[in-house]
Amino acid sequence: MNEKTFVNKTVEFSNNLHVGIVKKLLVFENLDSTNSTAKDLARAGAAEGTVVVAQSQSQGRGRCNRIWQSPKGGVYLSIILRPEVPVERASLLPFIAALAVAKTIDLYGVRSTIKWPNDVRVNSKKIAGVLLESEITGNTIHYVVVGLGINLHLDVKQLSPEIQSHSTSLAAELGHGVDYHEFLGVLFQQFDDIYRFFREQTSKKLIEEWKKHSDTLGKTILIQTSEETIQGTAFDIDESGFLLVRTEHGTVKKILSGDCLYFDEGHTG
Ligand code: BTN
Prior knowledge:
Blueprint: H1 10-16, E1 24-31, H2 34-43, E2 50-57, E3 74-81, H3 93-107, E4 113-115, E5 119-122, E6 125-137, E7 140-151, H4 161-164, H5 170-174, H6 180-200, H7 203-213, E8 220-224, E9 229-237, E10 243-247, E11 252-255, E12 259-262
Parallel strand pairs: 1-2
Antiparallel strand pairs: 2-3, 3-7, 4-5, 5-6, 6-7, 8-9, 8-12, 9-10, 10-11
The structure holds biotin (BTN).
């Protein structure tokens, strides 16, 4: 790993925040990407519950090869998981991550929704994104890195003009600042609760929870997958996390990942 700068108060920060999922917390002032660092650590054997936090990122990565702009004021973190579940259940992990963030935001009194698969939004503006990266061979899940980027108290004007109009932050929605450490504590607890729910409950129950937050079902959408572009109405999500879309020709398509655009909004995440 390259030389990285630890935040001065690492110990104090860590002691207060060993809550929920967190077994080991590594806090950095700046990283290229917390996901990249977490993957390095996971490959070197880091345990489940190792969490990498950075106060800014110079090469934050988003879904679909996008850049995740990561100025100070946002939450940028990656959680290493080693779930002992059948490999086919791993497809539900992105939903868990989005739910944990959405529920955390709700606890601040701000109603959030999830745009399939895992964009968290407030009033149709993006407030958080999730990037999962994993190593899975055959039936073995070696690790999953769950990367979360949340606009906490950054000013959306710090973001590039193209995304400003459809981005928001928790502080902007609340009209006042949010304590960074307190927010992390709530988030880690929510993540732990939902991750436990995932391991102990049926997929059906988890998807039901996700559906309560969904703003995708019932919408006319355009989805770009790695193979095709699909247009239709999103009408359900199945127990594996596949989005069910009825096309204008009446056929039903099952989609596990892709870039989703709502016709009434005209932009992607
Ligand atoms: C998206 O495109 O919506 C997903 C964005 C995920 C960004 C987070 S920030 C922490 C972690 N490290 C990264 O490089 N990306 C994820």
